[in-house]
Amino acid sequence: GKPLAVMFIDLARFKLVNDTYGHAAGDDLLKGFTERVRGCLRAADTLARQGGDEFIALLPDLSNPADAERIAAKMLASLDNHFTIDSRDFRATASIGISVFPDDGDSPEALIRNADIAMYQVKARGKNGCLRYRAEMSANHQRRVSFENDLRQALAQHQFELHYQPQVS
Questions:
Q1: Beta-bridge partner residues of 5
Q2: Beta-carbon count within 10 A of 46 CB
Q3: Active-site residue numbers?
Q4: Residue 88 DSSP symbol
Q5: For an engineered disulfide with 130, which of 52, 72, 76, 103 has Cβ 3.0 to 4.6 Å away?
Q6: Strand order from edge to edge, sheet including 54-59
């Protein structure tokens, strides 16, 4: 009967480390990130790797839904210090979306989906932050998906016409 929060966490620049320094360096970044994030969580909380650079945290028995945002802020602050990978300093940031039961969803799937939508809102605002899910985010997300589909269809049907406009100084 108590609120619980789901956080969808995206670690930024993980692919860059993997591609530049190799998978062993990427694994070191994931391990360092995980250690820092786990240090911000309570004993009853769960952190799981969703895949690649995405994680899900489950925060049960919240006394106040705002506690999830405080924990997310602690996570982001823990990333302020650089990571040392292969004797190189590297900075990493994260985008965190939060959904809270029962306000933001009544099933695991809905809570994860809504936390994911909130995380994408953080990324759209420039990354490195956290947001709690709000219902209007779903409408924005659906509008964006619809717009992208319409744009793909318009490109496929050659509905665009290119005009050149020279600019002379």
A1: 59, 100
A2: 11
A3: 53
A4: E
A5: 72
A6: 46-51, 54-59, 4-11, 94-101, 129-132
Instruction: Please give the structure tokens belonging to residue 64.
Output: 């106040």
Distance CA 58, CA 92 (A): 22
Q: What proportion of the chain, given as a percentage, has pLDDT over 90?
A: 56
Q: Among candidates 122, 121, 117, which has minimal Cα distance to 104?
A: 117
Helix (H) or strand (E) holding 156: helix 135-156
* Radius of gyration (C-alpha) of the chain in whole angstroms: 19
- pLDDT of 57 strictly over 90: yes
83-133 residue pLDDT tens: 888 788 888 899 999 999 999 999 999 999 999 999 999 988 888 899 999
DSSP E strands, the chain: 4-11, 46-51, 54-59, 83-85, 88-90, 94-101, 129-132
Taking the model in full, what pTM does it have?
0.81
